[in-house]
Amino acid sequence: MSLKTRRQRAFIHGVIALAAAFVLFVIPFIFVLINAAKTPGESASPSFTLPTEWHLWQNLVAVVEARDYMLLLAYFNSTVITVGAIALLVVFGAMVGYVLQRRPSKFNRVIYGFVLAGLMIPPAVVPTIWVLQGLGLFKTLHGMILIQFSYGLSFTVLLYRAFIATIPRDLDEAALIDGAKPWQIFFRVVLPLLKPVTVTIIVVQSITIFNDFTHPLYYLPGSENVTVQITLYNFQSQFVSQMNLLFMNILLVTIPPLIVFIFFNRQIVAGMTSGAVKG
Fold first, then answer.
1. Per the database record, which ranges form the ABC transmembrane type-1 domain (predicted)?
2. What pLDDT is attached to residue 277?
3. What are phi and psi of 261, to 5 degrees?
4. C-alpha angle 7/9/10, rounded to 5°?
5. How far apart are the C-alpha atoms of 230 and 73, rounded to whole Å?
6. How many CB atoms lie within 10 A of CB 94?
7. Are 256 and 210 in contact (CB under 8 A)?
8. Helix, strand, or coil here: 180?
9. pLDDT of amino acid 3
10. Which of 120, 162, 233, 242 can pair with 279 through a Cys bridge, CB separation 3.0 to 4.6 Å?
11. pTM, full prediction
């Protein structure tokens, strides 16, 4: 196959991929945006028809003020859960991945088996609720942070372990000869080199946690513990006759993860491929 033919095929595949992405992601976003700017009467039958009068700002204010500013509370709760869980995932995921990669032993093989099991075994909701109730963490943000941390830890450890394999052991040995302690080797030598995969984990996991619906529904009931995705569930009945406000709520929930992905998509690819290619 000639180089010209390969380039033509690569171009065609790229065009197909862009077209598929446009159909799957851009068109639904445009549909939501258009209907979020309509009046209640025009949005009763959602369509791609442009509104006669744009009520984007009025609908935004109405959604934010609904139910005593529930959406702002939901943003606060989701942000606290996301930041707390990401901080735990980065620190402990990197530490576990470092130990598994740099300290091979029979005990570490058992730990690695549990890490893989965490990816394959589905979570058990009822026993988890019992544990949270026993610890006094049910219906609390702290408990939800620990839930998101535990569910994302296996994926995080595997990424860190693969990336740490690309870092030469000579750096560890040189720091050890210079008198550095094990914790100093990790935090001062290894951890700064993990920036690409750390950015990947922060972006991927933050979007996953911020957009999570089922886990807060199970483990974080109560109107004071509402998260952004739960607002869609709560507002669905309230705005049944005002579809424009429901679409506006969907738009407000969708924009933050979309912005994060747009600005950090290159870092996501770099972090995912570095460990895969070099490991």
1. 75-264
2. 46
3. -65, -40
4. 60
5. 11
6. 25
7. yes
8. coil
9. 66
10. 162
11. 0.84
- Contact (Cβ atoms closer than 8 angstroms) between residue 155 and residue 96: no
- Residue 211 neighbours by CB under 8 Å, 6+ apart: 228, 229, 257
Q: CB–CB of 234/67 below 8 Å?
A: yes
| Interatomic CA distance for residues 56 and 39, integer angstroms | 9
For the chain, the residue count is 279
Say what the pLDDT of residue 23 is: 84
Residue pair 34/51 in contact (Cβ under 8 Å)? The answer is yes
Minimal CA–CA distance to 246: which of 79, 74, 66?
66
Work out the burial of residue 122: count CB atoms within 10 Å of its CB; fewer than 13 is exposed, 13-18 middle, 19 or more buried: exposed
* 38 contacts 51 by C-beta, under 8 angstroms: yes
Low-confidence ranges of the chain (pLDDT < 70): 1-4, 237-238, 240, 265-279
Q: How far is Cα 6 from Cα 201, in angstroms, rounded to an integer? A: 34
| Among candidate residues 207, 178, 167, the one with its CA nearest the CA of residue 82 | 207
To the question of domain 67-278 being in CATH 1.10.3110.10, the answer is no
Show the tokens assigned to 65.
């003020």
Phi-psi domain of 139 (left: phi exceeds 0; alpha: psi -120 through 50; beta: other): left
CA distance 236 to 33: 17
